[in-house]
Design goal:
40% of the residues lie in helices and 17% in strands. It is built from 13 helices and 14 strands. The structure holds zinc ion (ZN). Zinc ion binds next to loops.
């Protein structure tokens, strides 16, 4: 009641032009927070539904269907299937500039099926996929924040556009270079990356590593291993020689490099000279030019291996990712809203549950974090995320929201225990509020966008962007298809059948 009176007062003086900009900003953010508070159930219904869909990259059909329907009902224009990927979702509301986009992902991981809330290993579907990084929460938080921003834009006649890009198959770095190549970010003024963490923070600087992933397939000639091996050309020998060749190179690479491989076709049985051998490589480094330099040497090694064995080979580009170039200006703006929203208020029971889980799995027993992380650049991580490509064509800020358990690493089933818990739900609320408030700032503060752009121009020029995607390459839309088709019938039994509608 009291708040209503204050708001009416602010409204009256706003008409008279007396309200300082900060009070106006506060009122807009307050509205966004109210919208989020009354839609907590809707938001968590989305996130929880996505958890049970547990869809692998490029197979996010149920997840994107739910998001599309929910966002369309909420007044968004939604495109599904852009850039040649059926599960690539782009949603937007409004028109013109400034145009601000949330960039995130919703894919699960193979073998991640776990009964939520169970502290010991208990898959819902044996060997099935599941969310063991919490990407399911991104669906709810991004949609909720965008809807709240839309309500603020409508109420306050704020011009511009708010967009969401749910890129497929982040876990295999498989989509963003294609989305960038298709021009989705050409008219975007700034983006915010969204990710679940156990911390509540933003950051700036070069966030992680560049990566290039390709599959090398060698073709030889088959023969009987005992009777006429001299007639054969062993394609698996070529694979082995490529592996040895790269090991010889390792000494001469920068200490920052990473390279790892798996042999995906290694022959049939010993007495058959294999006419096909295949090896899948990841090459990484702290910058894309450095990774590319190593990758070019890798291709030369493949040529050498083919020459030595009399085989031929072809290379299939699988994926690539530039390191994230995170904008400091946007980081400072996001941090203000992280500080404004603050950590969720955990109950004693929630903290105890986190402690019990940490103790059970030999992790430091610290419970849940109680303070937001101050702004700072972090050491460059040697992991990669294909959203990195986006940050070299448009200024990118970053937001991590606290919806996971400290010390529990992603990509393990243990990270699948809490994504639908009250801890996760509270973290999602904090994330949605911060994201919405930050976008409101970006839509209404032209100086912020100008400053972010100026910083971006300087920083991105230091390493001019080039795409690793070969001109004729198409996204691998069959990625994970067989795996998903195998498990989906069993997984369907757990679907939540929610129809969230924001109001
Ligand atoms: Zn992730």
């Amino acid at each position: 009641m009291r708040f209503d009176i204050i708001r009416r007062w602010i409204g009256v003086v706003a008409v008279l032009g007396l309200v300082p900009p900060s009070a106006q900003a506060d009122e807009r953010k307050q509205l966004a927070f109210e919208v989020i508070e009354r839609n907590v159930q809707q938001m968590t219904d989305i996130s929880d539904s996505l958890y049970y869909f547990g869809e692998l990259g490029m197979q996010e059909f149920e997840s994107t269907k739910l998001l599309k329907e929910t966002l369309e009902a909420g007044g968004f224009k939604v495109e599904l299937g852009g850039a040649g990927m059926p599960t690539n979702l782009w949603a937007e509301y409004g028109s013109g500039h400034p145009k601000i986009a949330i960039v995130t992902e919703i894919d699960a991981l193979p073998g991640g099926s776990q009964t939520p809330g169970e502290f010991t290993r208990k898959p819902m579907v044996q060997d099935g996929p599941g969310h063991m990084e919490g990407h399911n929460t991104h669906g709810g938080v991004a949609s909720m924040a965008a809807f709240a921003v839309k309500q603020v834009m409508q109420r306050h006649n704020i011009p511009g556009t708010v967009a969401i890009s749910f890129g497929p198959a982040e876990e295999q770095l498989a989509s963003r270079p294609f989305i960038v190549r298709a021009g989705y970010f050409k008219d975007v003024d700034a983006v915010i990356y969204l990710h679940i963490r156990d911390t509540f923070n933003t950051t700036f600087g070069i966030g992680n590593y560049a990566a290039i992933s390709s599959t090398f397939t060698f073709h030889g000639k088959t023969a009987h291993g005992g009777v006429n091996p001299w007639d054969g050309k062993d394609a698996v020998d070529a694979v082995v020689l490529m592996d040895i060749g790269f090991d010889k190179l390792r000494e001469h690479l920068r200490p920052t490099y990473r390279a790892h491989r798996t042999i995906t076709v290694g022959g049939i049985q010993p007495n058959i000279i294999p006419d096909k051998g295949q090896i899948w490589w990841f090459v990484r480094d702290a910058s894309m030019p450095a990774a590319k330099e190593t990758y070019d040497k890798l291709v030369k090694i493949a040529e050498g291996a083919a020459l030595m064995t009399g085989t031929t080979f072809d290379v299939k580009y699988s994926a690539s990712a530039w390191p994230q170039l995170v904008n400091k200006t946007l980081g400072e703006a996001v941090q203000k809203n992280v500080d404004l929203v603050g950590m969720p208020k955990w109950t004693e029971a929630e903290v105890q549950r986190a402690r019990d889980f940490q103790k059970m799995h030999d992790k430091p027993v610290i419970g849940l974090r109680t303070a937001v992380t101050p702004l700072g650049g972090r050491p460059q991580a040697s992991s990669s995320n294909d959203n990195g490509d986006v940050s070299w064509v448009v200024p990118a800020g970053s937001l991590n929201f606290p919806a996971a358990i400290p010390g529990i690493e992603a990509h393990e089933w243990k990270a699948g225990v809490f994504p639908t818990s009250s801890i996760s739900h509270k973290g999602q609320v904090a994330g949605a509020k911060t994201l919405a408030a930050s976008i409101v700032d970006m839509l209404t503060t032209p100086e912020l966008i100008q400053k972010a752009r100026a910083e971006f121009e300087t920083e991105s020029k230091k390493t001019p962007y080039f795409s690793l995607v070969p001109p004729d390459a198409k996204p691998d839309v069959d990625l994970n298809r067989a795996e998903m088709e195998k498990y989906r019938p069993e997984m369907k039994k757990f679907y939540l059948s929610k129809t969230p509608r924001f109001n």
